[in-house]
């Protein structure tokens, strides 16, 4: 995860309480007239601290002037109880992406008419169902602010519609993804193949909104950037709409000190070329923002008087344009700094969308004065733009010389990491690298988008989330076994791990490890093993830790064949589908919640794929736990024996005891793997309950005497008496 220092914006309220601060006089269009104060006058009973979607929805429904403080990361794609929702949960009326692609393939449907009929209706209904969940309505006189580092909303669409006097600050808006993009064969982009996939939801949407200040936020699509979208019908399958769109007669808006990154259609100002509500409105100031690796619309403008000043632009190879000059627009671009990289060119910075002129002053490109308007006109002599937008901005508080923008700091406060006795760090890996053996590393709330390694030399480290809730602190990446490296090779199963933990005596507590690789979005990748954690250390304790993934989520292993490693997973949550607990470690899962995900088939998956060495009596013990699943009854195996590379001395040992099993578990819950019979492995159950429990010849059971030997203490004691329980 990239780290950004935060420029502290000027504010007319003193103190560090961002919720009480108001937009300073003269700071852009939103300071005009009555100014923008948000919910700064809220009384104590109208100051809300929210930690999940349900709390956020309730707080936003308060009609009084209010301050809504967001702590941690709120996942918007959840039900009212906080359970995560997938795209399949929103689909109605028989919609599937496969059926939609088959029906509207240009080779079948053609390119002369928009999709219509039952499948298009089902797509629209499914999108509306998702929108009703992720849409977050904001009313007048509201301040929404991230509380501390790493606060944000993932997958949500903040809708400031018909509201006046709203402030949004210090939040990370992440991956507002539409599950149901619409194919439009007649919507074309400059220089691209015909057609476009269009999505519905903006991270922050302004419609009929006035006096709005959007300040110090970070907008990103990670871990699902537009640049990684699959290409369908010759165009990227675009799951994101705008990051900040200002349309439908909105007016008097200031967008300042935000970071916009890893996105295509970034900021749209104006609804349509024929709008009757936009003329005379859409007065917007866009200043001191960072536009990093965005494709277009930074911003694209219709009608409005838009002052674009002191912004830092870092276009990359998929850059289409930055400033879109549309119908009746009056863009005044002043003192902006550009760095073109990866094939992006200065003549691409401007695009004529039916406008007549713009004003450009003081642009620097890599420190040199260059007119991007002149570069565009030279490259596009048939569609030139004039050099006078017809107005001069006056509300430009804080206007700086361009050279000072080269190292602009902006965006929401990133998650923070501290090493006790050493200092603070922006990334988890930098903290690990600096930490001495035995150090305590504390992670503030947020999503840490990075791959981490704890080497064997860092014995005794403690990794802990600061809030006591695993969901607040997420270490995430999305490599799969078949994901290509820059050199063209692939990562392989071990290399796909988000976290590789090799040190003995490591403790991890109150955090989440996630591999967010999505098979559906990468049909070109067939090796879909995607490890969240590979753990090889001895005497490792995972306490209240969540492991999220699909295939091969948790690789509980040892550093070498013939070397034993003991690992204790206490009060942990683990999800996956295929072999998602696997490896040769001696691993105890005590009071765990194990979620077997529904792949929609039979078999749906396998909980375990142990590869315990023949001479090790103890492999995996699942005890006092609960397995949950929405999968169809009798479609899940408890496990199968993994023999890496055909190793005949890898004789899986798994005991599942005193555990609640769902109906998804098969009546014969063990199965063969790669030609090796499960009956030659060491699989057993004891005293399990729930609709998936059972006995019989295909369900070996421990006797009471045997059960006394297969305990937490027996698995973990080893020769040194280790007893973390």
From TrEMBL:
Chain intervals for the UniProt region annotation (Disordered): 24-43
Domain Pectate lyase: 103-346
Composition-biased stretches (Low complexity): 30-43
An annotated GO BP: polysaccharide catabolic process
One matching Pfam family: Pectate_lyase_4
Transmembrane annotation, as ranges: none
Localisation: Secreted
Entry GO CC: cell outer membrane; extracellular region
SMART domains listed in its UniProt record: Amb_all
Signal peptide: none
Alphabetized GO MF terms: lyase activity; pectinesterase activity
Superkingdom field: Bacteria
UniProt keyword list: Aspartyl esterase, Carbohydrate metabolism, Hydrolase, Lyase, Polysaccharide degradation, Secreted
Family: Belongs to the polysaccharide lyase 1 family. Belongs to the pectinesterase family.
Name used for this protein in its record: Pectinesterase family protein
Lineage of producing organism: Bacteria, Bacillati, Actinomycetota, Actinomycetes, Pseudonocardiales
